[in-house]
């Protein structure tokens, strides 16, 4: 596993930060104190193992709204995948983005970590300066736990089982405890033994308790009789005390009833009927008065409104004027619209004239006119200019290509001439080949002579054909140039003649050479002997010479063609210049006719024509609108003056400040007049309706008033007040009778009817006398009950003891319980023994696993320690139960870890941590993190340390966090990440 990249959304001081790591090499992360190195380490651990909500809140960035980030990892067998954790998402659980596009969860990540926890990772693959101090106290068991934690995926389960075994063993038994189950069972057995001894001593007191029980029973019966008598007395006194207030009220109400008249005349439900009549009469009377007031108000209002009406002729004139308002408003709107349009158009004309970079003004446009022929001329000149520009560029490109081709051909010709041999050398080489052939093939002289003759004839024939063809082609091009007046035709003719003559000369020389060979072959039979190597060398040189001659001929042809192309180019160039001059004359003529074109590029003339023509059209429209504006203003002025005169004639001129307010005033006058007429009609209708309602209400009132007089007559009263007083007297009599009946009904539950009449007729005593008697009876009752309760308690205790003594089998039960609890103790002891054996087996298993890796671990530690100390120490010995780490020096002296210097102890601890990670790397190949662990190292130790870490980093990724610049002087910048910012600088 190797880290590729870390992206921080927000964590401690970091937010929106990214750092790239270099796989399979040492990665140094440098930063000053408080620059965020530790925070970056914690972020990596957070990405791998997560954090609790409380810890996430502690590391939340104070400058970022998010807490979390991503860590990209590459791992063999999977490839590159990314771990993402965000505090607010999924409660901080990891989301793993796999290379195949799928997503994995926290459980998948834990499986990839093979059971390594945050604590295990920090114990094996990470350390800092603070961890160096733990070496003094580290013992054999600590190292074993570290090895077990890294080597076994389920170490946390093993550790939990061990803890549970210890807990259960402690729950069962402790040598000096009371809470464990076995300890409690032993105490319970002791209690049972003591109870058996107590039961035996209780059997002596049985006869004494039997006599005492009979005496107490007689006393209880006597007390029960006394209590019954006292309860009856208390009950009678309580009844009298409770009934006394009711009896007193009964006597009072009987005397009050005797004061009322014997007969009271009053109509049935008289009050309700009277109130109902009043409820009907009062609204009618109120409504009648309101209607009368309304009629008077309507008549007064009508008189006031008639004074506000306009005269008939004035009203008609105002209506006629208002009918012209819409026409006037349309004129005003048209004036504003025309003024705005004219102003906007004038500004637009000026801006467009400025945009085309001319000195013309809008007034100057009236003197300019454009025709259809002008447009065609400008378009034609623009197109011709564009064609000339394209043709000029094309000629320039062709010229460059021809010049480049000519230079390349001359260079090739010079190079080929270097391979051509002098004529003398060619003859010598030819003779050498000829001599070799004569020497070895003298018997074939006749055949060779025939072959040479055939070659000579073929070459002579080819030379004649090429020469004749070149002359014919040259004559054709010469005639073409003569009749078409093209000079390049003459050039092609000369080139063709030259080519034909050159081929004739070359063919003639070749024929002469072959004839010489034939002569030499037949006449010279005594030539010097030539070896095969010399003959092959001569043949090769002649072949190269012939090839060079052929290439020279080809290049010569191409040079002639290039020359012809240059002649053609020159003619096209002259024609282009003539055409450009003619176009310039036309352009100059147009610019004289239209000086405005002086500053405009010819290519823009067609577009300018349409734009300028549009300007001329806009100018004509602008002048037309100005005249239309003047006409509308004149109409508006006449209308306004007429309105003003009308208002002035009627002394209304002070009512307005403008023509609009004048119209508004006239509208108000008309609306007031119309509204007044409508109000007059409305008031007349209201008055009529009110009079009709008055007559109707008077008839309704007469009916209710007659009914009211009938009620008074039945009650034998004349006024409403007397009617209410008589009703009150009748209600009081009913209430007294009702209360007398209620009291009698209450007393009937306690006393008979005769007894109640007797109490009402007799004089009843005071309540204080009755309460005194009741207290006396109650006190006697309480004393008797208390004494009875005590006697009963004593009786129950003695009776229970006797019953227990007569039928108790407590002794046998206790003995039975003693045997049961003893068996339970044996079961608990067996369970304790099983748990104890399991704990010992688990400890033995851990020790065996530790011993399996301990030797490799110590050997690897020794190797690293020897490298770090430059062979000053040769061996490291593991700690035992009572002995810490020991090291052996080069002179075979042993030292405990406490006897070493601080720097050497740090070297030993670092060697141990590196060795543990190396031993476990086959199972867990994870990056190693070191944080400023060289505090006590001098420069030499630092150098040894860096060499060791650099060698380890070739096999696994190493991240070194440091604030020391001395560690990065000799390393390339590609492996160094500098954290520039510091919290104390912010």
TrEMBL record:
InterPro entries in alphabetical order: P-loop_NTPase, YhaN_AAA
TM helices/strands, residue ranges: 464-482, 488-506
Keywords: Coiled coil, Membrane, Transmembrane, Transmembrane helix
UniProt cross-references to Pfam families, sorted A to Z: AAA_27 (PF13514)
Residue ranges occupied by any YhaN AAA domain in the UniProt entry: 6-204
The UniProt record lists the keyword Protease: no
SUPFAM superfamilies: P-loop containing nucleoside triphosphate hydrolases
Signal peptide: none
Key word Zinc present: no
Annotated coiled-coil segments of the chain: 199-240, 274-338, 680-801
Name of the featured protein: YhaN AAA domain-containing protein
Organism: Virgibacillus necropolis
């Amino acid at each position: 596993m190797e880290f590729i990249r870390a992206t921080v959304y927000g964590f401690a001081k970091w937010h929106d930060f990214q750092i790239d790591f270099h796989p399979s090499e040492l990665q140094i992360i440098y930063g000053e104190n408080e620059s965020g190195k530790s925070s970056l380490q914690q972020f990596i651990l957070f990405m791998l193992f997560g954090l609790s909500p409380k810890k996430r809140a502690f590391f939340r960035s104070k400058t970022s709204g998010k807490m979390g980030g991503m860590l990209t990892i590459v791992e063999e067998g999977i490839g590159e995948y990314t771990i993402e954790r965000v505090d607010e998402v999924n409660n901080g659980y990891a989301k793993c983005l796999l290379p195949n596009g799928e997503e994995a969860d926290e459980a998948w990540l834990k499986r990839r970590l093979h059971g390594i926890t945050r604590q295990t990772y920090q114990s094996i693959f990470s350390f800092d300066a603070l961890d160096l101090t733990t070496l003094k106290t580290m013992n054999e068991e600590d190292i074993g736990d570290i090895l077990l934690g890294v080597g076994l995926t389920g170490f946390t389960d093993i550790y939990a089982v061990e803890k549970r075994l210890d807990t259960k063993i402690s729950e069962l038994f402790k040598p000096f405890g009371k809470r464990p189950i076995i300890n409690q069972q032993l105490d319970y057995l002791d209690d049972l033994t003591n109870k058996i001894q107590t039961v035996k001593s209780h059997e002596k007191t049985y006869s004494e308790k039997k006599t005492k029980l009979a005496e107490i029973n007689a006393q209880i019966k006597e007390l029960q009789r006394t209590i019954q008598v006292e309860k009856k007395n208390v009950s009678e006194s309580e009844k009298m005390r409770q009934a006394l207030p009711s009896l007193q009220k009964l006597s009072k109400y009987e005397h009050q009833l005797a004061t009322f008249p014997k007969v009271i005349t009053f109509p049935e439900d008289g009050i309700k009927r009277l109130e109902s009549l009043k409820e009907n009469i009062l609204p009618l009377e109120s409504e009648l008065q309101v209607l009368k007031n309304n009629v008077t108000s309507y008549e007064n209002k009508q008189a006031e409104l008639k004074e506000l009406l306009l005269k008939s002729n004035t009203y008609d004139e105002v209506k006629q004027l208002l009918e012209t308002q819409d026409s006037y408003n349309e004129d005003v709107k048209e004036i504003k619209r025309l003024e705005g349009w004219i102003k906007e158009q004038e500004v637009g004309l000026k801006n467009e004239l400025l945009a085309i970079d001319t000195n013309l003004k809008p007034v100057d446009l009236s003197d300019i006119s454009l025709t259809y022929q002008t447009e065609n001329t400008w378009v034609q000149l623009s197109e011709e200019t564009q064609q000339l520009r394209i043709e000029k560029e094309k000629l320039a490109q062709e010229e460059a290509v021809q010049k480049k081709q000519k230079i390349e051909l001359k260079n090739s010709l010079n190079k080929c001439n270097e391979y051509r041999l002098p004529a003398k050398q060619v003859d010598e080489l030819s003779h050498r080949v000829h001599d070799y052939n004569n020497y070895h093939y003298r018997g074939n002289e006749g055949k060779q002579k025939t072959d040479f003759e055939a070659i000579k004839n073929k070459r002579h024939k080819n030379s004649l054909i090429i020469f004749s063809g070149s002359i014919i082609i040259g004559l054709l091009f010469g005639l073409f140039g003569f009749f078409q007046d093209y000079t390049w035709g003459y050039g092609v003719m000369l080139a063709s003649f030259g080519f034909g003559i050159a081929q004739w000369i070359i063919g003639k020389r070749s024929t002469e050479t072959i004839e010489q060979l034939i002569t030499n072959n037949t006449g010279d039979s005594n030539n010097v002997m030539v070896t095969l190597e010399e003959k092959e060398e001569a043949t090769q040189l002649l072949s190269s010479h012939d090839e060079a001659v052929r290439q020279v001929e080809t290049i010569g042809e191409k040079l002639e063609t290039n020359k012809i192309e240059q002649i053609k180019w020159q003619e096209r160039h002259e024609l282009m210049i003539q055409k450009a001059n003619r176009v310039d004359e036309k352009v100059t003529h147009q610019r004289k006719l239209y000086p405005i074109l002086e500053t405009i590029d010819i290519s823009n003339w067609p577009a300018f024509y349409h734009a300028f023509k549009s300007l001329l059209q806009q100018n004509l429209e602008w002048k037309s609108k100005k005249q239309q504006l003047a006409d509308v203003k004149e109409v508006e002025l006449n209308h306004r003056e007429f309105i003003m005169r009308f208002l002035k004639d009627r002394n209304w001129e002070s009512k307005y400040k403008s023509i609009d307010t004048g119209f508004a005033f006239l509208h108000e006058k008309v609306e007031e007049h119309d509204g007044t007429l409508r109000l007059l009609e409305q008031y007349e209708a209201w008055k009529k309706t009110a009079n009709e309602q008055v007559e109707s209400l008077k008839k309704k009132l007469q009916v209710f008033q007659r009914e009211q007089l009938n009620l008074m007559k039945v009650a034998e009263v004349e006024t409403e007040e007397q009617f209410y007083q008589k009703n009150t007297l009748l209600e009081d009599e009913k209430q007294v009778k009702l209360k007398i009946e209620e009291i009698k009904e209450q007393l009937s539950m306690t006393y008979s009817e005769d007894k109640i009449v007797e109490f009402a007729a007799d004089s009843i005593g005071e309540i204080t006398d009755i309460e005194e008697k009741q207290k006396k009876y109650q006190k006697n009752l309480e004393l008797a009950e208390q004494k009875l309760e005590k006697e009963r308690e004593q009786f129950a205790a003695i009776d229970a003891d006797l019953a227990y003594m007569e039928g108790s089998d407590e002794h046998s039960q206790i003995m039975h319980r003693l045997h049961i609890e003893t068996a339970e103790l044996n079961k608990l002891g067996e369970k304790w023994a099983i748990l104890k054996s399991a704990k010992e087996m688990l400890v033995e298993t851990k020790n065996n696993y530790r011993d399996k890796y301990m030797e490799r671990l110590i050997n690897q530690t020794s190797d690293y320690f020897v490298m770090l100390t430059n062979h000053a120490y040769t061996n490291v010995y593991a700690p035992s139960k009572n002995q810490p780490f020991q090291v052996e020096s080069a002179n075979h002296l042993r030292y405990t870890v406490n006897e070493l210097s601080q720097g050497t102890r740090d070297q030993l601890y670092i060697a141990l941590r590196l060795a543990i990670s190396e031993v476990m790397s086959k199972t867990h190949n994870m990056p190693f993190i070191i944080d400023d662990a060289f505090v006590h190292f001098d420069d030499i130790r630092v150098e040894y340390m860096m060499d060791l870490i650099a060698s380890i980093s070739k096999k696994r990724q190493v991240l070194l966090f440091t604030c020391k610049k001395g560690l990065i002087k000799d390393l390339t910048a590609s492996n160094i990440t500098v954290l520039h910012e510091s919290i104390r600088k912010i």
